[in-house]
Write a structure and sequence with these properties.
- The complex is a heterotetramer of chains A (195), B (348), C (494) and D (695).
- Chain A is α/β, with parallel strands linked by helices and 195 residues long.
- Chain A has a 4-stranded parallel beta sheet with strand order 2-1-3-4, sandwiched between helices.
- Chain C has 494 residues and is an alpha+beta fold.
- Chain C is 41% helix and 17% strand.
- Chain C is built from 17 helices and 17 strands.
- In chain C, the strands form 6 sheets. In chain C, strands 2-1-16-17 form a 4-stranded mixed beta sheet, covered by helices on one side. A 4-stranded mixed beta sheet of chain C has the order 7-6-5-10.
- In chain C, a hairpin with a 5-residue loop joins strand 12 and strand 13.
- The longest helix of chain C has 30 residues.
- With 695 residues, chain D is α/β, with parallel strands linked by helices.
- Chain D folds into 5 domains: 146 residues, Rossmann fold, CATH 3.40.50; 168 residues, FAD/NAD(P)-binding domain (3-Layer(bba) Sandwich), CATH 3.50.50; 82 residues, no CATH class; 166 residues, FAD/NAD(P)-binding domain, CATH 3.50.50; 57 residues, Alpha-Beta Plaits.
- Chain D has 19 helices and 35 strands.
- In chain D, helix 3 crosses helix 4, helix 6 packs antiparallel against helix 18 and helix 7 runs parallel beside helix 16.
- Chain D is globular.
- Chain D starts with a strand and ends with a helix.
- Classes of the chains: A alpha/beta (195), B alpha/beta (348), C alpha+beta (494), D alpha/beta (695).
- Chains in contact: A-B, A-C, A-D, B-C, B-D.
- At the B-C interface, helix 2, helix 4, helix 5, helix 7 and strand 6 of B face helix 1, strand 2, helix 2, helix 8 and strand 8 of C.
- Strand 6 of chain B pairs parallel with strand 8 of chain C, so a sheet runs across the interface.
């Protein structure tokens, strides 16, 4: 995990406007269909946005929801899952399992406040290079419109290097305390402390 | 407390340092079940008292944080922290104890993965406080909220800050061992303590850093007496929808979302035994990165449907995905929270 | 006077924090008792399926999860408009009685009792379970452990787990009990009756037999004339699991009784900006601040309160003890009303009477022919809507109130938790203790013990109240002069 | 350029070499390759990169030598090559890695050509993406583990399913090579569809004449065990070691005793309409061989139609049989075969023309299917080769042949059935040969690719006949004009003249398309292969490996994988046989070591994985209460790995660690090439204070 100082105000990057925002999307491909479709798109020099970075799995059935959540946690703005068309899996029927996991995972991320459009499923056979390219373009635009997800990077403050007593004194006793107003929780609180 | 008192404390500490290994038991934001579970090792508690010099156990006996502060770094041999990191005060004390302790143990579900209170991370701090202070029975016309630095007529009153997100112990300090469970089963606690004592006496191996103590390496099904077959779920049910569940057969096979398959063993599969589904309090199995992801994948894998709409029909049976999959582990999961918790819209 | 530097630790120390401010003459200007934590169950339970509430709200408090388990189950029954089969209710109540035996035992011997048994002036380090054992003998210690162990075994036999049980669900219980288990529970029940009588004996011997203690019990410092609240059965006898909530005025008049679902007409919660905990009070009387008397809405809900609102105990031995209690402490009724005891320290005695009742009730339930019936759950047929569930937690009347959508998923939750009821009285006890022991800026050394004893009798469980701390309540008292400078910090049992 | 930090290898240290390929200008034209190389060397040091090089063509031998030399000289223990798709050169660089003395699976090939330079226009963005892809490969390769292929023995016997021309040719190739073959056919005789034809395009040689000899050889070959009137019920095991269960249906005729004299058929009193071989145009007896050249000669007694089995009396066949071969007590036999490889040549079903009601087949008597016409025109057929109307006597004066019936039509099958054009031309020729009729061909496009095919087309054109470019909308007997009376009228838009036209004719031949067997999907499941949505078997690679399937040891030949003509089917039969022979010659074979493994100590026996494997590689041990995976049967898809709620199943080659690490690598930098922006974790007073003090 990237070790970021926790002092920057939350959501500073929220500012990035849809116009300039270039999303980063992780795409999972099946070795037999969609990865070959990506190869085909390349061979045919079909241009599409560079925002999607592909990971090759043997089968969409290998896709562990952990991978998707990991991608969000590591800062991806969206995840694109691809595989063989239903009924055409090279492993007979595994893409149906992928489909079911996708549907349940999408319900779950929605419950965690992540727009369902940040997790998309596209079937692409080995012959559908052009289609895969256009789907990637579509997904990229949809995510661009949603703006950054920018999940916070978790971190442990290494306290051994900190003199807590001094730290406390440094606050002069009223550090970061919100003003005594009816709404006790001060919105600018973090920001204030950070400066 | 006077400086002299402080030095006395230090002297006392120095004296003690040649004596028995020191044990501290600290409850952060906890329900106390962990303490009760420790007390429930019953007569063994006396053996613990014999093996350790218990320097801190607020719930049960006297002691002062001041004494802890006075100790040398690493003077406490083992600190068991139960409860989650909910206020800046608990975070601060956890760090203090970390400095003073050789071994820091995340004790119980709260400390290790956030437990039920971790579900607070589904909401923003403002939503939580607003809800608590505007319930139907609350008489609060002026919308008063707790204030961390309150100017009372007689002077300033401080309250610890309610943090934006609840955190697990290892998100705040370096943790050596974990004892899972909500609460950990007393027999397991005793087993873990014995292991620690043995290690300290050199009569047993010191578990490698990061070990999970007082639990198994598999999942609850391993200890569950119910009969299991291959699984095909064509509908998920809720307990109040089914008159009678077969007492012999796997609850999940009967459509009841049981978290047993993904939940670490060690509890003895008590809930399935009493006819209630496992709710997952022992957290994830060995080496698992994200508890919820395992369960999502497992449940979806065994759904008997291939058409998206059929699949949706089955999945509608899980009315609360976030709660079902992250009931105990949200704060410790890959995402740690819902977006609402850190996306400060709620407070803007 | 020495200026004391406060470092971050002492500054933040303790889960219960007391700030005492002195006026220029060194007299107590005010005392604040702060509860520094909150967990937000009322928010994050929203969105959960209602059938999970009995297990989710367990985690509010690990000291009395059974109370939340029961209140939640009853609220869930109400949400689905179902009345569980009799056998299910018997099982729930049996589990709950066993819990009372365990909890009251723990409090008397480990937490509250030491003040008397070992003595209020004994060093704090001895005023704990070990001190008690030293005084009354090891074999008693064995019995105390036995009582807790057996109680938890019964809870596990019926509820599935010793702590945070799992078996109560909307419409009843997940599973009944076998005859073998019933027989075992009956045995434990009978043993518990003896143990309760034995404990009352200890109280007789050590407290009532000691004039100094008796005087202390009756002293004004430990007396508050507030309203009282508790659950009573149709015969106005004490009941823990079910019934109507009864309110008694400080003058012994029954202000009224209400069905739990009507709680909002009777109780409101006052908010102060300097604490995370709210102060419930009687709506009909109103919030008048931290004062006693019939004009102040402050009430308390404790074993003492329950005895005060009830007209007796539902079991013979407990009834006898009940009468002895009032004959001893309140021989004459107040202004023609019911005989009341306002001496807070008597709560310890009341607790032992409840212990006896719980034990007797265990046997009643365990010997009910229907207790082993397999018919322990009925299926809801109506749409889930809204429901209230109330039980008597050892530390006060506990109310859960849920609203759900048509799927039975929670849309709103309100919790009125046991200890909370007594927050205001406790704050008052603090101030009272401070006022009587701080004069001209001089702090009497007994202050902390006094305050602590005032607390212990409520058996405050702030795990419940703030969902931050269970069982005994660590204290930190900071005393500040008129300039707000801290002149002294006392801390106990942090 | 080259960037290298030279320090001596430390024990246990990960030492990664990074090689970025220019691929001439294919990559370097868009991606700033030297910059990517420099970036990797500087920014991926902590990940263990000790050397990063770029080169014009990494796949050239000097390029590969860079890798092998660095492994030896710099003590590298991991390799990442950023170049083209792994599907092209993964093997190349794994081999190079092996030459350097490392396990080949410690090499990762990441694609910055197909996935980047070829599809991206913005050079800066392409360069940034290349860095991310490379970082992903580096993080991944750190977690790569040396893998060793699983070796299995190959049983030299082979099972061929389907006795059509494809199956027969596969069988003979194998048998002639000296290996045992079991040929299973569900009909009483081998021969398949080809046996029903009269002539074959474009050479017009007699189908029977060229097929029969092969059938006979197959029937008599010492290495061939012919199992007709039999069906495969179960397939267990894995490549090299399949156990196949075959049901040999009761013939009620003792094959050893029967000399195939045919007297039983003569004497049998019961005539039955022959729906199968004669396509419903002719009759057979209740005991019969489907046709004269049938192999084996042994007839089959059709129990449902047998008078004896119906009424309990008759037994004419038994009475007249001189060799006492008739056995009414015979029962189905279940045979268990041990084979090392399986070739599926189960062929096709003809599109059922009834589905296109507008063409009136089944309703209008003189609308025929192609198969019916094959029988009609066959000298050995029901009419001895006389082309007549349904009444059996009248010769048609005009015949319409309709192409693409059920093919190239999104309402039925969107694909082209490949053989219909040529077949229709053949029909035109046969009609002309046997009758005076005027011939109309209704086609969408003429597809005559194939040796001698277009020549044949030209020849038919010269023979005369009217070619109408258009697909008939309707075939009706409702006349609008006197001359249409008593005729079949084809309503069609002639797309060459662009107008609706009506063609009255006496006879219509529907050139029906080819479809997968009705039971194709069950078949696929039984043999553990995958098939397309329509039901055609999917090849391992449509171009480069057309007769292999995803399942090791199971091959396909002929129409089972899609419409083919006879030469293609024969070629595939031989090709499949060649693949099998290769396996047999190796005696042993290595399986791709990408496998799933259950860690028993973590397995709780919840059995969720048990339904995950389509190859039945997962089994549950009731005694131990744990599941386990047969490595040889596992095809490495990883579905069970993802499904295991206990995380007790690991997948080599695509482990959680590898994928999670790759995700971290891919997300090292943002779209701009700068480190990915991250929201700071919400802070509280203490953290802010501590940070402040630290700063």
């Amino acid at each position: 995990m990237s070790a970021q100082a926790p002092v920057a105000p939350a959501l500073a990057q929220g500012a990035a406007s849809a116009a300039t925002f270039e999303p980063v999307i992780i795409g999972f491909t099946c070795n037999w269909c969609s990865y070959r479709a990506a190869d085909l798109a390349g061979t045919a020099r079909t241009k599409y946005p560079p925002n999607v970075r592909l990971i090759r799995l043997m089968c969409s059935g290998r896709l562990d929801p952990t991978f998707v959540l990991k991608a969000y946690a590591e800062g991806a703005d969206a995840v694109l899952v691809t595989g063989c068309h239903p009924g055409e899996c090279h492993y007979i029927e595994q893409n149906y399992k992928a489909l079911r996991r996708f549907q349940l995972l999408q319900r779950t991320i929605e419950a965690l406040g992540i727009e369902p459009a940040r997790l998309q499923l596209v079937w692409a056979s080995a012959a559908e290079g052009v289609r895969l390219a256009s789907e990637i373009a579509r997904v990229t635009e949809e995510v661009r419109a949603l703006g950054p997800l920018n999940w916070p990077a978790g971190n442990i403050v290494d306290i051994d290097s900190v003199n807590l007593d001094a730290a406390w004194e440094a606050t002069g006793g009223d550090a970061g305390g919100p003003p005594a107003m009816p709404d006790g929780v001060d919105p600018e609180h973090e920001a204030e402390v950070a400066q | 407390m006077s400086p002299t008192a402080r030095s006395n404390g230090a002297a006392k500490a120095a004296a003690k340092s040649r004596a028995k290994p020191k044990l501290a038991i600290f409850g952060a934001a906890s329900c106390g079940g962990c303490d009760v579970a420790i007390v429930n090792i019953h007569e063994h508690i006396l053996e613990v008292a014999a093996a350790f010099d218990i320097v801190l156990w607020p719930t049960i006996m006297d002691g002062k944080y001041a004494d802890i502060e006075a100790m040398a770094d690493g003077e406490i041999t083992v600190t068991l922290v139960n409860g989650s990191m909910r206020t800046d005060e608990t975070v601060h004390l956890a760090r203090l104890l970390r400095r003073k302790s050789k071994f820091m143990v995340a004790f119980g579900s709260c400390a290790s993965e956030g437990c039920i209170p971790g579900l607070a991370n589904l909401s923003s701090r403002k939503e939580i406080i607003d809800t608590a202070f505007s319930t139907v029975s609350t008489d609060n016309p002026d919308g008063i909220r707790p204030i961390w630095e309150y100017q009372a007529p007689e002077g300033v009153l401080h309250l610890p800050e309610f943090e934006p997100m609840l955190r697990t112990l290892d998100q705040v300090v370096d943790v050596d061992y974990t004892i899972p469970g909500c609460p950990p089963e007393s027999k397991q606690i005793w087993a873990a303590l014995q292991a620690v004592v043995a290690a300290l006496n050199g009569t047993g191996p010191l578990p490698p850093k990061g070990s999970i103590l007082g639990a198994g390496e598999s999942t609850v099904c391993d200890e569950c007496a119910r009969k299991r077959d291959v699984k095909k779920i064509d509908r998920f049910v809720r307990i109040q929808q089914v008159a009678q569940f077969d007492p012999e057969i796997c609850l999940l096979e009967q459509g009841l979302p049981c978290n047993g398959p993904a939940t670490r063993d060690g509890c003895g599969a008590l809930c399935p035994a009493v006819g209630a589904p496992c709710i997952g309090c022992y957290g994830a199995a060995e080496g698992v990165v994200d508890y919820g992801a395992r369960l999502i994948s497992a449940y979806a894998s065994i759904v008997e449907a291939t058409k998206p709409e059929e699949i949706d029909r089955v999945l509608d049976g899980i009315v609360d995905p976030a709660g079902q999959f992250y009931r105990f582990s949200l704060a410790g999961s890959l995402l740690r929270s819902s977006r609402a918790a850190w996306n400060s819209d709620g407070e803007k | 006077m020495e200026r004391i530097t406060i470092d971050p630790v002492t500054r933040l120390e303790g889960h219960g924090k007391i700030e005492i401010f002195l006026d220029p003459d060194g007299e107590v200007a005010n005392a604040y008792f702060q509860i520094p934590e909150l967990r937000g169950f009322e928010r994050f339970c929203v969105g959960r399926p209602v059938e999970e509430m009995p297990t989710l709200t367990n985690r509010i408090c690990g000291v009395c999860p059974e109370a939340h388990h029961m209140a939640a189950a009853k609220a869930a029954d109400a949400v689905y408009h179902v009345d569980p089969p009799r056998a299910a209710k018997l099982l729930r109540e049996l589990l709950y009685s066993a819990f009372y035996v365990t909890d009251h035992t723990t409090h008397f011997y480990a937490l509250g009792g030491p003040d008397f048994v070992v003595g209020p002036d004994a060093p704090a380090a001895e005023r704990n379970i070990l001190g008690v054992l030293a005084k009354v003998g090891m074999e008693v210690g064995g019995q105390v452990i036995q009582a807790r162990k057996q109680g938890h075994n019964v809870i596990e036999m019926i509820g599935g787990r010793k702590i945070h049980p799992a078996a109560a669900v909307p419409g009843g219980m997940t599973r009944g009990i076998t005859e073998e288990r019933r027989a075992e529970i009956e045995k434990i029940g009978r043993w518990s009756i003896e143990f309760a009588q034995f404990s009352l004996g200890i109280f007789d011997r050590i407290v009532l037999g000691n004039d100094a203690y008796k005087e202390m019990v009756l002293s004004d410092g430990y007396t508050h004339r507030t309203y009282y609240m508790g659950l009573v059965d149709p015969n106005n006898k004490v009941n823990f699991y079910d019934g109507r909530v009864s309110i008694m005025s400080p003058d012994g008049e029954r202000v009224g009784t209400y069905a739990p679902a009507e709680y909002r007409d009777w109780i409101a919660e006052h908010v102060e900006p300097w604490t995370y905990l709210k102060f419930p009070y009687l709506k009909k009387v109103g919030w008048k601040g931290f004062v006693d008397g019939a004009d102040s809405g402050v009430y308390c809900a404790t074993p003492l309160s329950r005895l005060n609102v009830a007209e007796g105990m539902a079991t013979p031995l407990a009834q006898a003890a009940y009468e002895r209690f009032y004959d001893t402490l309140a021989p004459t009724p107040e202004s023609g009303g019911k005989r009341l005891v306002h001496h807070r320290l008597a709560t310890h005695w009341a607790r032992l009477i409840e212990l006896l009742y719980a034990a007797e009730h265990m046997v009643e339930l365990a010997t009910d022919p229907e207790i082993t019936s397999p018919n322990v759950r009925i299926l809801p047929t109506e749409k889930p809507t809204e429901g209230v569930g109330t039980v008597e937690a050892p530390r006060g009347t506990l109310t859960h109130h849920y609203w759900t959508d048509e799927r039975g998923v929670l849309t709103a939750v309100n919790l009125l938790v046991g200890t909370t009821n007594n927050y205001a009285p406790m704050a008052m006890s603090v101030k009272k203790a401070a006022q009587s022991l701080i004069h001209k800026g001089v702090v009497h050394q007994g202050l902390l013990n006094r305050v602590e004893m005032a607390f212990r009798l409520y058996d405050p469980c702030f795990g419940c109240a703030t969902h931050s701390l269970p069982g005994e309540m660590p204290l930190a008292v900071a005393i500040r002069d008129s300039d707000g400078e801290v002149i002294e910090v006392l801390s106990q049992n942090c | 350029m080259t960037a290298e930090h030279s320090h001596l290898p430390v024990e246990g240290e990960v030492r990664i070499g990074v090689y970025v390929c220019h691929c001439g200008s294919n990559i370097a034209g868009v991606v700033d390759v030297p910059e990517v190389t420099r970036w990797a060397a500087e920014n991926l040091r902590d990940q263990g990169v000790v050397v990063a090089r770029d080169y014009k063509f990494m796949c050239s031998s000097p390029g590969q030598e860079l890798v092998t030399d660095d492994i030896k000289n710099l003590g590298l223990n991991r390799i990442v090559v950023a170049a083209c798709s792994p599907h092209l050169h993964e093997n190349t660089f794994r081999t190079a890695t092996a030459r350097g003395g490392l396990n080949p699976y410690l090499c990762e090939l990441v694609s910055i050509r197909e996935q980047d330079s070829w599809v991206t226009t913005d050079k800066a963005a392409a360069t940034a993406k290349a860095k991310a892809i490379l970082a992903g490969g580096v993080e991944r390769v750190r977690r790569n583990e040396p893998l060793v292929p699983v070796t299995v023995d190959i049983n030299p016997a082979t099972l061929v399913v389907g006795g059509g021309i494809a199956g027969i040719s596969a069988t003979l190739e194998l048998a002639d090579a000296g290996f045992k073959v079991y040929l299973v056919e569900k009909e009483p005789s081998i021969g398949g569809h080809m046996a029903q034809f009269d002539k074959t395009f474009p050479t017009l040689d007699c189908a029977a004449c060229i097929l029969t000899p092969k059938m006979v050889t197959a029937g008599t070959h010492p290495n061939v065990e012919l199992l007709t009137w039999s069906e495969v019920e179960k397939v267990e095991g894995f490549v090299g070691n399949f156990t196949v269960t075959v049901r040999k249906k009761a013939r009620y005729v003792d094959e050893d005793a029967c000399n195939g004299c045919g007297v039983c058929q003569e004497k049998c009193p019961k005539k039955v309409l022959d729906e199968v071989f004669e396509a419903g145009l002719g009759y057979r007896k209740a005991i019969y061989t489907p046709f004269d050249q049938a192999v084996p000669r042994t007839p089959v007694l059709d129990r449902p139609n047998c008078t004896y089995f119906e009424r309990g009396t008759c037994k004419a066949c038994e009475i007249f049989c001189e060799s006492d071969a008739i056995d009414f007590t015979q029962e189905d036999k279940i045979l268990t075969l041990q084979v090392g490889n399986i070739i599926l040549a189960t062929g096709y079903d003809l599109f059922d023309a009834r589905r296109m009601q507008q063409y009136g087949y089944g309703r209008l008597p003189n609308v025929f299917t192609s198969l019916e016409f094959e029988r009609l025109s066959n000298s050995a057929g029901p009419t001895n080769g006389h082309i007549v109307l349904r009444d059996g006597v009248t010769e048609p004066k005009s015949v319409a042949i309709v192409h693409c019936v059920g093919s190239r039509d999104k309402n039925y099958n969107s694909y082209c059935s490949a053989i219909c054009c040529m077949q229709s031309l053949k029909f035109a020729h046969l009609v002309r040969e046997h009758t005076e009729a005027t011939i109309y061909e209704f086609y969408i496009d003429m597809r005559t690719a194939g040796k001698g095919y277009d020549e044949f087309y030209q020849r038919i054109l010269e023979e005369g006949g009217i070619f109408v470019r258009g697909k008939p909308a309707e075939i009706t007997d409702v006349a609008r004009t006197p001359e249409e009376e008593g005729k079949l009228i084809l309503q069609v838009e002639d797309t060459l003249v662009g107008q609706q036209r009506r063609f009255p004719v006496d006879m219509v031949i529907l050139s029906s398309g080819l479809e997968p067997r009705a039971d194709a999907k069950e078949l696929a499941v039984r043999f553990g292969i995958s098939c397309s949505f329509d039901g055609w078997a999917i090849e391992k690679h449509p171009k480069l490996d057309p007769v292999a399937t995803m399942t090791e040891g199971v091959f396909v030949a002929g129409c089972v994988s899609g419409p083919k003509d006879i030469p293609a089917s024969v070629a595939q039969g031989a090709a499949a046989a060649a693949r099998v022979l290769g396996r047999i010659q190796q005696k042993q074979m290595n399986l791709e070591p990408i496998k799933a493994t259950v860690h028993a100590e973590h397995c709780s026996g919840c059995r969720i994985c048990n339904t995950m494997c389509p190859y039945n590689a997962i089994s549950f041990d009731d005694v131990k209460g744990v599941s386990s995976i047969n490595a040889a049967m596992c095809q490495g898809c990883g579905t069970c790995v993802a499904a295991c709620p206990a995380g007790a199943i690991s997948g080599s080659g695509f482990s959680d660690e590898q994928v999670l690490a790759q995700i971290e690598g891919l997300l090292r930098i943002g779209a701009s090439g700068a480190p990915l922006e991250r929201t700071a974790y919400p802070v509280t007073r203490h953290e802010a204070i501590e940070e402040a003090v630290r700063a």
